[in-house]
Amino acid sequence: MKDNFSKQADGYAKFRPHYPVELYRYLFEKVKPRTQAWDCGTGNGQVAIRLAEEFGKVYATDISQAQLDHAQKADNIEYRVAPAEDSTLPPQSADLITVAQAIHWFDMEQFHREIQRVAKPQALVAYWAYSLPKITAEIDEVVLDLHDNVLGPYWDLEREIWRGQYGSIALPLQNKEKRDFEYHSTWTYEHLEGYLNSWSSVQHYIAKTGTNPVPAYLQPIKQRWKDPKKLVFPIFLYSGVV
User: Fold this and answer.
1) What is the pLDDT, as a whole number, of residue 153?
2) Of 44, 45, 103, 233, whose Cβ has the fewest other Cβ atoms within 10 Å?
3) Count of C-beta atoms within a 10 Å radius of residue 49
4) Residue 188 pLDDT
5) Residue 12 scores a pLDDT above 60
6) How many angstroms separate the Cα of 5 from the Cα of each of 32, 44, 78, 169?
7) Closest of 145, 199, 237, 189 to residue 5, by C-alpha
8) Across residues 43-52, what is the average pLDDT?
9) Which is more confident, 72 or 74?
10) For residues 145-175, b (16+ Cβ closer than 10 Å) or e, as one string?
11) Three-state SS sequence of the chain
12) What is the CATH number of domain 9-133+157-184+232-241?
């Protein structure tokens, strides 16, 4: 298990993008009854808090206590420090299992066994992630260069699973389908910088070199930034039935 986000848990909670209403509507239309859900790799609980509006009970697990310390609370959410592969949840307890921006870190064979144990018959499993944001051609080019070249050696190997839009993940689900969504927002320069600083590769870079490459590398963008700037995060989602 790799815990790449405890150190920057506060920034993760503040600066990571959310997910659109259309994505949740798509999931909820597929799940009845909505008794219990499991949000796996919940991080700061942004998906769990949304599920709690529709489900009687939400289990939300993560390996990072620091992340859970920043999670949004609700009376019907039970947060647990646990790996995806050994959730400690009751058997056949979940009508919906979600994984947002995290499944590429899992041991897929063990996670599949845990899904089969925790899921109710015909439960829905959905996992998704967002790609790099689209802002302007100039900014996108700088962010991509930072991602690929400056930070390239500092990404974990699991990043390649994400780069392939989860096409290599072979969870044996029934009626599996892929859908695309978009998250639209307006960010200040400070929000963009905070988001980039939440990347695990930036933390690896700092640990290795003692310096943070983000502020200096983005200085030309900062000087020309005019607030506000609209941006779009493309999202790819897979879902299927256990």
Assistant:
1) 96
2) 233
3) 18
4) 95
5) no
6) 33, 10, 21, 22
7) 199
8) 96
9) 74
10) ebbeebbeebbeeebebbbebbeeeebebee
11) CCCCCCCCHHHHHHHCCCCCHHHHHHHHHHCCCCCEEEEECCCCCHHHHHHCCCCCEEEEEECCHHHHHCCCCCCCEEEEECCCCCCCCCCCCEEEEEEECCHHHCCHHHHHHHHHHHEEEEEEEEEEEECCCECCHHHHHHHHHHHHHHCHHHCCCCHHHHHCCCCCCCCCCEEEEEEEEEEEEEECHHHHHHHHHCCHHHHHHHHHHCCCCHHHHCHHHHHHCCCCEEEEEEEEEEEEEC
12) 3.40.50.150
How far apart, in whole angstroms, are the C-alpha atoms of residue 5 and residue 9? 6
Q: How far is CA 138 from CA 18, 134, 164, 208, in A?
A: 24, 10, 24, 29
In the chain, domain spans: 9-133+157-184+232-241
What is the pTM for the complete model shown?
0.93
Written as six digits, the tokens of 195 are: 């988001």
Closest CA to 39 of 84, 75, 72, 5: 84
Split at pLDDT 50, 70, 90, the class of 145 is very high
User: Which pLDDT band holds residue 14 (cuts at 50, 70, 90)?
Assistant: confident
Distance from the Cα of residue 38 to its chain's centroid:
14
